[in-house]
Amino acid sequence: MVDTMVDQWDGARATRDPARCRAQLMAAGRTLFAVYGYARTSIEDLCAAAHVQLRDFYREFESREALLVDLYDEVAIGGMRAAEVELSAEGIETCSTEERIRRLFDAYVRVVTRDPKAARVAFVEVLGVSRAMDDHLTMWRTVWVEFLTREAERAAQRGHGLDGDLTVVVKVLTRSVDELLAHHGRRPRQVPSDWLTSELTRMSLAMLGPSAPPETSA
Asked: Please, are residues 97 and 188 in contact by the beta-carbon 8 Å criterion?
């Protein structure tokens, strides 16, 4: 009886506080989508876990997929901001290309893998959901292609020999990032974040090609 009253009180309080309601639904989605899978989680399941009413769900989200999009964006925006902040960090403009790439990936990976449940949702559960979700992921890949293209151009200016079309190289790298993060999302203990950073750095340097040796005077 006491537990029932507490649940009812929590639900009523969430309804009165839209920010709290949204946060509870986000937390419920993060957990249920990660543990049971997006396809096997209903809106009713989400409302029960969040202690909110069905009408409260639709007040915050147009659909279950809209909640999934917001959960993905939360991770994606956090990772992008972390990389952008690292671009302003001390020493980033004077370190070697290898160290710069490692630092950028380390900043990104640490944020997007901080919560294993959020990482699974963002890099596994979003796959194959719908055409609209695929388009959303493509939009984000475009953002990352622009970011990584700037870094590849900078590496080229510093003497790294890029073979072939730069755009193709960056798109391949972006897809590789997605695949490794999905691998981590499925098996976070077997694919730790430190390994991800090292592997992404290694792959990037391999695609960029070796830096040209400094010219020597005759």
From this structure: no
Residue type, 199: E
Distance CA 109, CA 22 (A): 26
**2-16, 103-117, 120-134, 200-214: segment of lowest average pLDDT:** 2-16
With b meaning 16 or more CB within 10 Å and e meaning fewer, what string describes 119-135? bbbbbbbbeebeeebee
Q: Whole-angstrom Cα distance, residue 14 to residue 168? A: 48
Residue 79 and residue 118 in contact, taking contact as beta carbons nearer than 8 Å:
no
pLDDT tens for residues 186-217?
A: 988 888 899 999 999 998 888 877 665 544 44
H helices of 121-165, in order, are 131-157
Tell me the helix, strand and coil percentages in the chain, rounded to 5: 75, 0, 25
User: Looking at 31-163, which runs of residues are DSSP E strands?
Assistant: none
Query: What three-state secondary structure class fits 187?
Result: coil
